[in-house]
Design goal:
There is one protein chain. The chain is α/β, with parallel strands linked by helices. The chain has a domain at 5-32 and 93-275: Alpha-Beta Barrel (TIM Barrel), CATH 3.20.20. Helices cover 49% and strands 10% of the residues. It is built from 13 helices and eight strands. It has an eight-stranded parallel sheet with strand order 7-6-5-4-3-2-1-8, with helices on one face. Strand 2 (90-94), helix 6 (98-105) and strand 3 form a beta-alpha-beta unit. The radius of gyration is 19 Å and the shape is globular.
Length: 307
């Protein structure tokens, strides 16, 4: 849609109300026993299993892909009585590892590529746009773009809009997730405005962070983004996806995020088309909790595969 600056400039955020909402939310809701196990199994299907480190190798990516296809062990599946296959939503890697993922996964699971100068997003515009094209040519199914945070901090909303719209055009029919880098945006109002502008420009998902900032996904910044998704849906009837990323490493925390999404957007958002969880170490804790549910004790770490 066209950039609506009146809408953007009228956005307001009551920080104390946000904090009060998220604090009471986690205290009011409690998920136990078989319900907790069911929620954790659902969470697995929403994970973008990620490796974005300087020491990423082909071997490491192969192990990650194997974990994506078989996120919990065969023994645990039998203990839980699972008959249906369970897989993560996608694998998320750097641009140069896409082909390796493709050769291993053979289109069994979507591949998301971080592009546009990840994680800082400060490469030249031409270079960043070319990265998207090359990632898609290499076989990426989804593109996680990094916005220029400077545009947000300087209130250059037209520049941000044009940039994201151009990236979306370069990606064609591929899903684009716009990474806001919430830890660098200084205020919740900036988080809300950046969310809105990215949605106007055609982003299919808005994503909290790269995982490299000092502040990543938390319930407060996620609530602000979810409220903007809800407002955008109410006014345009278009559903935008949400991806919290960075710092979500325990089963307890992922359930809190699921509760938040259900409370704000409803159960229809709890599916991989509208909700992803960017994580690298979350899966191993989920598997530990499921093992505890099944046998009444925690497994030794060496008994579980990489997370």
């Amino acid at each position: 849609m066209k950039l609506d600056l009146d809408w953007v400039n009228n956005v307001k955020v009551n920080l104390s109300a946000v904090q009060r909402r998220t604090t009471t939310l986690t205290k009011r809701r409690s998920v136990k026993k078989e319900y907790q196990a069911a929620w954790l199994l659902k969470a697995i299907t929403l994970i973008d299993l990620t490796t974005l480190s300087g020491d990423d190798t082909y071997g490491k990516v192969d192990r990650l892909c194997e974990k994506a296809v078989n996120p919990i062990s065969l023994e645990l599946k039998k203990l839980l009585g699972l008959r249906e296959p369970i897989k993560v939503a996608a694998v998320c890697v750097y641009h140069h590892l896409i082909k390796e993922c493709n050769s291993y996964l053979k289109k069994e699971i979507p591949i998301a590529a971080v592009s546009t100068g990840f994680p800082a997003g400060l490469s030249s515009f031409k270079t960043r746009k070319q990265e998207i094209i090359e990632s898609i040519n290499n076989g990426a199914d989804e593109i996680d773009i990094v916005i220029n945070r400077g545009f947000v901090l300087q209130n250059h909303w037209k520049k941000l809009y044009d940039e994201v719209r151009s990236f979306k055009k370069a990606a064609g029919k591929k899903h684009v997730k716009a990474i806001l880098g919430v830890g660098d945006l200084e205020t919740m109002r900036n988080v809300a405005k950046a969310s809105l502008v990215c949605m106007m420009a055609g982003a299919d998902f808005i994503k909290t962070s790269t995982g490299k900032e000092s502040t990543n996904a938390n319930l407060n910044n996620s609530l602000v983004m979810l409220r903007m998704i809800r407002e955008f849906h109410e006014l345009t009837n278009k559903k935008i996806g949400f991806k919290p990323a960075g710092g979500i490493s325990t089963a307890k925390s992922v359930i809190e995020f699921l509760i938040l999404v259900i409370e704000e957007l409803g159960t229809e958002w709890i599916n991989p088309k509208l909700l992803r969880i960017g994580a690298s170490s979350l899966l191993i804790d989920i598997e530990r909790q499921l093992y505890h549910f099944a046998v009444g004790r925690y497994a030794n770490r060496e008994k579980l595969a990489i997370g």
